Amino acid sequence: MPETYTSGAWLVKPGEEEDFVEAWREFAAWGRTMPGCGTLRLVRDLENPSRFMSFGPWESFEAQQAWKDSPEFKERIMRVRQHVEDFTPSVFEHVTAVE
After folding, report:
1. Cα–Cα distance for residue pair 47/94, rounded to 1 Å
2. Under a CB-based contact definition with an 8 Å cutoff, are residues 66 and 94 in contact?
3. Contact present, 4 and 68 (Cβ < 8 Å)
4. The whole model's pTM is what?
């Protein structure tokens, strides 16, 4: 099965960046315990410090979907989303790589 990636584009409420990062870190630590989850990463836009992107690899579409379907997912993601003005989640399929 092809590797998939979850990704999120986050626009954080001004002044809540540190709270957002801490909430995301807790969410990601929980996510890492799920079968098929790789390293989850959060990056910040250098020109707009309220804008973040998260991403992480999953063994399969089914593995990341099981994570999203888990009973705790909604509650845990809402702890992160309380700090944001806008959030756009995406799921990507690995197509190719250049080394």
Report:
1. 28
2. no
3. no
4. 0.92
Specify the pairing of strand 4-12 against strand 41-44: unpaired
Q: Which amino acid is at 5?
A: Y
Q: Are 45 and 5 in contact (CB under 8 A)?
A: no
Dist CA 49 CA 78 (whole Å):
21
**Strand 41-44 versus strand 84-93 pairing type:** unpaired
- CB of 60 closer than 8 Å to CB of 36: yes
37, 56 contact by CB (below 8 A): yes
Strand partners, 38: none
Q: Give the type of residue at 60.
A: S
Single out the residue of 42, 57, 46, 41 nearest to residue 6, CA to CA: 57
pLDDT digits (tens, 9 = 90+) for 8-50: 999 999 999 999 999 999 999 999 999 999 999 999 999 999 9
